[in-house]
Amino acid sequence: MLYGLPDSGRNFERYFDRFLRDACGAVPMVVDRSVYKILTKNGDVIYCAVFVDDVVFWGTSDSAVSAFRNAIRSEFGEDGFTGGVIAESILGLNVKYDDEELNCTISMPGYIAAVAERFGVDQRTTLPNSPLPLNHVDRKHEGAPLTEEKRKLFQQIVGCAGWASFNAKPEAMVASSFLAQHCHNPGEEHLKLGHDLIGYLYKTREHGIRFNVDEFVNAGKMYVDKVDTKLNIADLGTKAVSNLGLFEDLRDRLTGYNPECYMSPRVEKAVKRVLCLLLK
To answer: For tag attachment on the chain, is the N or C end more exposed, with fewer CB atoms within 10 Å?
Structure first.
């Protein structure tokens, strides 16, 4: 295969899927086929999530994680496998850990700040305290249609707000859904609501989704490794984000596993939820 071919991403997905199943005994989750569960002979569990050539995983013991990493090294070579420290950023999502409260928070301040700057919302002196006005009543636009330029602007706002709300700002999902219903014929009132929604996201950009667990071993954390395949497959995920001009340094910020930290089996359910959220 050649670097950058349109089918490179899909072909590598199949290649890595076969490797995980055959070499590691991985079984894809029902809720997301890019998330795998590996049950070792010793009874340890590894959850592994794949986005093109970015691998996010947890393990319940050092030995299980070490064996998993060695299997990847054996397949792709020492030079084709990178990573090293606990993940602080994964595909545009910031990850913060609180070792005292034993929780993990996922947020998108960088993406939201870039969106606010794109639409000129970051210059506002007053920002709303809620995604929609508390007395908002959703209505169709009955007047003259907006210009094509403004209609496309509204659609772009809705798309950006929807992406942020889906990944890290669930309290804005209803507002994003309401506005999305007007993409075919928005009015000035809808355009203003869209800008206000971006303003709210910008004001609360440091807030995200917090996952609390009842038991950690060494405050279990998220681990990420990078696979640079010998097939020279394009890193489509990194390029897609870079093309938006939001996170050009994504590759350098992707981080990896710290063998001194791992999760206990009792937090598997919480882990699965985080994995599915990250890779939607």
So the answer is: C
pLDDT tens figures, 39-54: 888 888 888 888 877 7
**54-59: strand order across its sheet:** 27-28, 35-39, 45-51, 54-59, 223-227, 81-82
Tell me, what DSSP letter sits at residue 27?
Answer: E
pLDDT tens digits for 240-277? Answer: 333 333 333 333 333 333 333 344 444 444 544 444 44
- The C-alpha torsion from 277 through 205 and 92 to 246, rounded to 10°, is 140
Helix axes 8-24, 62-76, angle to 10 degrees: 130
DSSP 194-254: HHHHHHHHHHTTT--EEEE-S--BSS---EEEEE--TT----HHHHHHHHTTS-TTHHHH-
Which residue, among 168, 273, 167, 257, has the nearest Cα to 220 in the 3D structure?
A: 257
